[in-house]
# Entry
Amino acid sequence: MDTLLLLLHVIGGTGALLALPVALLARKRRGAHTIAGLVFVAGMAVAVGSALPLAVLVASPFLAAVAVFSAYLIASGWRWIRRPGVGTSAAWGRGMAVAMLVAAVPMTALGIAQQVGGDGLGIVLLVFAAIGGSLAIEDLRALSAERLGKAARTTLHLGRMIGGGIATVTAVLVVNVAFEPAWVVWLAPTAVGVPLIAVWSARLAPKRAASRT
# Structure
C-alpha cells in the first residue's frame, strides 16, 4: 500500500511540477493558463491525497502537517478563482480557513517540540504554520468584505497557487538535494517565492483599487 501511495505521490507531484511554469508564464485568460492550471491542481490533489494516508502509514506528523498546509493553499486558490465569495462557496471558504487556523496550532506545537529536541526541521513547521494562519485570516477578512472585486479575488488566487507551486518545488528539492542544515532546503523556495507573490500582488493593486471605485 505504501508503495502505491508513494507512486501516486510522485506522479501527481511530477504532473504539477511540469504544469506549473506554463500556468505561471501563460497569459492569464482561458487557454494555456487554464489548462495548465487544471493539470497543476489535479496533480497537487493526487500528491496531497496520497501524502496524507502515507503520513499515517509511516507515522510522520511532519509529513501530515505539510500535506494539510499544501492542501489548504490549493483548495483556497482554486475556490477564489472559480467561485465568488458568496453563498455556499463562502461557507466552504470560511470552513477551510478555520480548519487551517486550527491545524496551525498543533503544527506550531510540533515545530516547537522539534526545535527543543534538536531537530532543525521544526523551524519549517513554524514558518508554514505562520504562513497558513496568516493566509487563513486574510481569507476570513476577504470573505467578510461587503464587496470583493475580480482583481482582489485574482490576487488571492495568485498568492495561494504560487504557494502551492512553492510546495511542489520544495518537495523536489528535498528529495534530490543533499544539504545541511536540511531546513535551508525546505525554506529556500519559500524565501524566493514569498517576495514574488508580494511583487505580483503589488502589480494588481491598481486594478483592485479601480474595482472599488
Summary: Residues 2-212 form one domain.
